[in-house]
Amino acid sequence: MAAIEVTDLTKDYGSVLGVNSLTFAVEDGEVFGFLGPNGAGKTTTIRTLLGLQSPTSGSATVLGADVRDEDALVAAKRSIGYLPANPAFDETATGQEILDLHASIKGNERSGDLLELFDPPLERTVRQYSTGNKQKLGIVQAFMHDPDLVVLDEPTSGLDPLMQHRFEEFVRAERDRGVTVFFSSHVLGEVRRVCDRVGVLRDGRLAATERVEDLLHRSGKAVHARVADHLSPADFDIGGVHDLEIHESDGEGVVDATFTYTGDVNDLLAQLRRYDLVDLTVEEAPLEDVFMRFYGNDAREAAVAVDGGVADV
Fold first, then answer.
1. Which among 158, 152, 186 is positioned nearest to 170, based on CA atoms?
2. ∠ CA 73-133-161, rounded to 5°
3. Which helix (H) or strand (E) holds 114?
4. Which residues, including other chains, have CB under 8 Å from residue 65's CB and lie 6 or more apart?
5. What share of the chain is helix, strand, coil (3-state, %, to 5)?
6. SS3 of 211, please?
7. pLDDT tens-digit profile of 146-173?
């Protein structure tokens, strides 16, 4: 049996449809990315899987427990770790007191190793914590009881780049130990670095479930080329070029070309060698471009949600 199984799961709030007929499975020992812009329904799915709210229809099991069976789910939660998107701790308690409370409820097999890795200031009260320190404390509490399944909702929010890298290495190591990780995010880069498969969510519906390698192939690369030559759209008439824009830099004699590229990068480089190349940047495509690839021109609202910070439901 898979660690998480979801079948036709729907949550209807009345005025808002949180998720609609979701069906997917998360296999034991994999890191499954749950990818979507803010407002797509990621947090609704997580809250339903953890029994924090009841589904309107459909079914789901977590570690074999039906999410509608309170007793079975309570027993399963002894083997589940959870990091919410915005960890909320008692502001008057110290970090050590928070961990002591969690240890009394669910156990404490691993906090020593975790504290060496993430090092939240345990002697301070939570009200003195930065956002990053709250996140580090949340990571420790999510893994301290050595769970079989960990559910992470935007887990790197507030972490500095060094700590993000450390956390990503840690998640990969946990997978190698056999831990299953459900990794909800709107950041394509971190999903790429840690996840085995990904489910792409839009407006409460699952648009696709596929391997990360396949997702990246579809999303392509964001390319910015600066050329000391005249350019026209015909110069980029090769497979894989999308959304091409060409601008001349006034007074510099340089032309800027920006586009998304989903083809073989070697073919692109062979094409660009024909010109006097001043600068070239090839980066991972922004998440909004990924959604454009999946949904076409009717994805404008999803793209705006990524940039605009629309609250998730």
1. 152
2. 105
3. helix 111-118
4. 72, 73, 75, 76
5. 40, 30, 30
6. strand
7. 999 999 999 999 999 999 999 999 999 9
Q: Are the C-beta atoms of 101 and 136 separated by less than 8 Å? A: no
Record the tokens describing residue 7, joined without a space.
């079948």
Residue whose entry in the numeric block shows the structure tokens 């800027």: 256
Closest CA to 47 of 75, 9, 79: 9
End-to-end Cα spacing for the chain: 29
Q: Residue 81 and residue 141: Cα distance in Å, rounded?
A: 8
Provide the CA 12 distance to its chain's centre, in angstroms.
24
Residue type at 122? L
Question: Given CA atoms 279, 280, 281, 285 in this order, what sign does their dihedral have?
Answer: positive
Query: Which residues lie below 8 Å from residue 214, measured CB to CB, with a gap of 6+?
Result: none
Bridge partners (DSSP) of residue 198 are 33, 210
Encoded tokens for 281: 């940047």
CA within 13 Å, CB half, 20: 10
Q: Which two tokens stand for residue 115?
A: 């504290």
Q: Cα Rg for the chain, rounded, in angstroms? A: 22
| Helices within the chain (DSSP H only) | 42-49, 70-76, 95-106, 111-118, 131-143, 161-176, 188-194, 212-219, 265-272, 287-295, 300-308
For the stretch 256-283, pLDDT in tens is 999 989 888 899 999 888 889 899 999 8
The encoded tokens of residue 81 equal 């770790």
Predicted model pTM: 0.77
Residue 299 DSSP class: G
Which two tokens mark 92?
């008057």
Q: Which residues pair with 6 in a beta bridge?
A: 24, 60
